[in-house]
Design goal:
The protein has 150 residues and is mostly helical. It is 62% helix and 11% strand. The chain has a domain of 89 residues: Winged helix-like DNA-binding domain superfamily/Winged helix DNA-binding domain (Arc Repressor Mutant, subunit A), CATH 1.10.10.10.
């Protein structure tokens, strides 16, 4: 693949992402939590066990400090629970509280309907499968984070 084609594909992917995110942000479901807060609740809902903040950070598009502040706010509202990491007494693990689970499910059901409507508006069933496979392949082949030399 030539670099211009790769760049063109990237620009189209970003354009599609931006279009979809504007549509999703216009949903009338974000009164209880913001989209970013929902992303955190959703990521936590997918994990079978409590996770460290650094693990959670791999699943959301926020800097570590911004995520930490957002988790603090969710914990203050009773949506996220903190517990001591049994493997490292200094560490903290995060999970959803029952209230957090309820909010995630309520918002998630409504959001899933909009996602399904948006994705099926322009793509066939086969194309959705191809898109999923391509995105999974891109994620698996992602470049490792750059290391710094000291």
């Amino acid at each position: 693949m030539t670099p211009p084609l790769a760049n063109d594909a990237w620009e189209e992917l970003l354009g599609a992402y931006g279009t979809l995110m504007r549509e999703f942000s216009a949903e009338d479901i974000w009164s209880e939590v913001s989209m970013r807060e929902y992303d955190v609740l959703y990521a936590l809902s997918k994990c079978p066990a409590p996770m460290r903040l650094s693990e959670l950070n791999r699943h959301v598009l926020l800097s570590q400090p911004a995520l930490s502040r957002l988790v603090d706010r969710l914990a203050e509202r009773g949506l996220v629970d903190r517990c001591t990491d049994p493997a490292d007494g200094r560490g903290v693990r995060l999970s959803l509280t029952p209230a957090g689970q309820a909010v995630q499910r309520q918002v998630g059901r409504a959001h899933a309907r909009t996602v399904a409507r948006a994705m099926t508006a322009g793509l066939t069933h086969d194309e959705l499968g191809q898109l999923e496979a391509l995105c999974r392949k891109l994620s698996a082949a992602s470049l490792p984070a750059p290391t710094t030399r000291t």
